Amino acid sequence: MAQTDNKRFFENLSGAGKAIAVLTSGGDAQGMNAAVRAVVRMGIYVGAKVYFVHEGYQGMVDGGDNIKEATWESVSSMLQMGGTVIGSARCKDFRMHEGRLKAAHNLVQRGITNLCVIGGDGSLTGANLFREEWSGLLAELVQQGLIDEEASQKYSALHIVGMVGSIDNDFCGTDMTIGTDSALHRIIEVVDAIMTTAQSHQRTFVLEVMGRHCGYLALVSALACGADWVLIPEMPPEDGWEEKMCQKLSAKRAGMKRLNIIIVAEGAIDRNNKPITSEHVKNLVVQRLGFDTRVTILGHVQRGGTPSAFDRILASRMGVEAVLALLETTANTPACVVSLCGNQSVRLPLMECVQMTQQVQKAMDEKRFEEAVQLRGRSFENNLKTYKLLAHRKPESELPQSNFNVAVLNVGAPAAGMNAAVRSAVRVGISEGHKMFAVSDGFEGFYKGQIKEIKWADVGGWTGQGGSLLGTKRTLPAKHIDKIAEQMRKYNINALLVIGGFETCDRIKQSASGTKHRVFIIETMGGYCGYLASVGGLAAGADAAYIFEEPFDIRDLQSNVEHLTEKMKTSIQRGLVLRNENSNENYTTDFIYQLYSEEGKGVFDCRKNVLGHMQQGGAPSPFDRNFGTKIAAKAMQWISKKLNESYRKGVGRVFANTEDSACLLGMRRRALVFQPVVQLRDETDFVHRIPKEQWWLKLRPLMKILAKYKTSYDISDSGQLEHVVLNRPKQSEAMAAI
């Protein structure tokens, strides 16, 4: 890749002569190991020495074997492990000046002046205090004769970069913290399981989830499972909530629903800051309604298990970005945290984030709950608004009368999250006063007249269903446009919401981990788009991923085999190679399998697996449920706005004759953007059904770097220290995208 004037490449940054220490502190979170792995490998890659600090700040204070130099191989097979393999501990000693003095001495002895801290706001605040005291601590060490003046001058500045590891997503300044998505997976797995037994026995379940000071897990899991009621600390229920909740539960049962789900954050409070416990909620339901009610407290199961693909990718990106930030820092650079905004990595001043996080708690303590929600950020605020919109139906008398008919249909291949999007669109449309219609089997069903009105209750329980309950086919509308127009006239349809496409690697890696010197060749779906292979490769720690967007030849294949062979000879390694199904018509999965098998003889053996349609199956993830719900709600609100703008009262018709009356809604960099379909013509490769420019291609070098390949990495988007309040996009309410 040639360097150009408007791009910056990390090859210009050298870590030679630098020492970086990485530690995990506070509560553990799934994905911490992926972050540690990325810091270690990126640090070694740029020529720095990297050290593990075992047991968090306690290990830094105690020194000795708690601070060990890391090697490339020492983080192998770490990516898919939950918790933190280098340990974490609450440390009282580090809170004392004497403890921090010992820690400084231990770091200086090893020449460490760069610290990467993975933890929550308390851990990061402690790191910043350590940095501020650093020069004074060194002066004390000189005075006590523990280090000489030369060492004090040589190691005069301590550089700090933080990554937020917290399942609660309670840190201001980032869309998602490491561990949150995995915790949501654990919660939704439990909720989905409980729903079956609750339905069998007509029970009400009260689920308590973590979140002592932050209701993110409770709120998003309520959105993702369609819970009947949710209680969170940032927005306590209005006085009299008990009666309203019971009325809603009773109405659901009267509507033939056999179960109720109530989700309670462990820190839920009422308007007077008094705790609302799950047991209290259960007793209310039993006493007032007589429903058979059970309480399930999820507890630490939310911290356990393997990290999700999202958390592995997030942590890997953050780890690489943290090393880049340390390489670019100067004595005057404030301590920063690396975080995610939309699909971009950003750097923010650590203490600005900490102070805003503390302001949230202060606002709650002072009963300024609306302000607390706003301080949490646009993502949290939008989640709350969307939940209220979908969970609480307004009486018919309070609904606006729009006289518009809106149809919803699915097209293309089925995708997890489609049903959540349809449910959201239908309920938001009804709330806007529209009459909603469902079209079965995509455009084929449209021209055949498979159209019927769909009501609020009809989409109950759709959120967690996989596939497409409306049915979807790949039929394109062009051949049947006249018949479709006829059906639109028949049903007086004023607007269409089309949900669809352009018209599992982890378990295999775990299998390989149980075997020495084995390489798996995996074929993924995606048509001509290499996103699944590339991002799946980053999440699973693949050695190579072959895609259509990056042409390759026999020399590249041979180079990859040789590289893998060298790695296998030097240590116990397991290999993973991914191939997008249409990456090359000649270099098929069978060909690559046979090539690797032949060239790897005596060093490793091979297995192959074609994942096929299992990639489309199963229940949607919490991310897909939440993202589908929010993006469909936003789309329906946009449709309502456009219908009102285009309606001509004089003739009683909608005139949609401008470019922006047909738009695609998607994420661009940090924002959800409505882009006119007409404008997409110049940006789309219609032959291969992919965009001409793919943002995720910038992530591919990360996979190669972490697999020990020498490559170029464009860091043009990195390096700018932003501020928490400023530079936040108006539409950044979108949940972070992979």
From TrEMBL:
<dbReference type="GO" id="GO:0030388">
    <property type="term" value="P:fructose 1,6-bisphosphate metabolic process"/>
</dbReference>
<dbReference type="GO" id="GO:0046872">
    <property type="term" value="F:metal ion binding"/>
</dbReference>
<keyword id="KW-0021">Allosteric enzyme</keyword>
<dbReference type="GO" id="GO:0005945">
    <property type="term" value="C:6-phosphofructokinase complex"/>
</dbReference>
<protein>
    <recommendedName>
        <fullName>6-phosphofructokinase</fullName>
        <ecNumber>2.7.1.11</ecNumber>
    </recommendedName>
</protein>
<dbReference type="InterPro" id="IPR035966">
    <property type="entry name" value="PKF_sf"/>
</dbReference>
<keyword id="KW-0479">Metal-binding</keyword>
<keyword id="KW-0460">Magnesium</keyword>
<dbReference type="GO" id="GO:0003872">
    <property type="term" value="F:6-phosphofructokinase activity"/>
</dbReference>
<feature type="domain" description="Phosphofructokinase">
    <location>
        <begin position="20"/>
        <end position="325"/>
    </location>
</feature>
<dbReference type="GO" id="GO:0005524">
    <property type="term" value="F:ATP binding"/>
</dbReference>
<dbReference type="GO" id="GO:0016208">
    <property type="term" value="F:AMP binding"/>
</dbReference>
<keyword id="KW-0067">ATP-binding</keyword>
<feature type="domain" description="Phosphofructokinase">
    <location>
        <begin position="503"/>
        <end position="639"/>
    </location>
</feature>
<dbReference type="GO" id="GO:0016020">
    <property type="term" value="C:membrane"/>
</dbReference>
<keyword id="KW-0324">Glycolysis</keyword>
<dbReference type="GO" id="GO:0042802">
    <property type="term" value="F:identical protein binding"/>
</dbReference>
<keyword id="KW-0808">Transferase</keyword>
<keyword id="KW-0418">Kinase</keyword>
<keyword id="KW-0547">Nucleotide-binding</keyword>
<dbReference type="Pfam" id="PF00365">
    <property type="entry name" value="PFK"/>
</dbReference>
<comment type="pathway">
    <text>Carbohydrate degradation; glycolysis; D-glyceraldehyde 3-phosphate and glycerone phosphate from D-glucose: step 3/4.</text>
</comment>
<dbReference type="GO" id="GO:0070095">
    <property type="term" value="F:fructose-6-phosphate binding"/>
</dbReference>
<dbReference type="InterPro" id="IPR009161">
    <property type="entry name" value="6-Pfructokinase_euk"/>
</dbReference>
<dbReference type="InterPro" id="IPR022953">
    <property type="entry name" value="ATP_PFK"/>
</dbReference>
<dbReference type="InterPro" id="IPR000023">
    <property type="entry name" value="Phosphofructokinase_dom"/>
</dbReference>
<dbReference type="GO" id="GO:0048029">
    <property type="term" value="F:monosaccharide binding"/>
</dbReference>
<dbReference type="GO" id="GO:0006002">
    <property type="term" value="P:fructose 6-phosphate metabolic process"/>
</dbReference>
<comment type="similarity">
    <text>Belongs to the phosphofructokinase type A (PFKA) family. ATP-dependent PFK group I subfamily. Eukaryotic two domain clade "E" sub-subfamily.</text>
</comment>
<keyword id="KW-0963">Cytoplasm</keyword>
<dbReference type="GO" id="GO:0061621">
    <property type="term" value="P:canonical glycolysis"/>
</dbReference>
<dbReference type="InterPro" id="IPR015912">
    <property type="entry name" value="Phosphofructokinase_CS"/>
</dbReference>
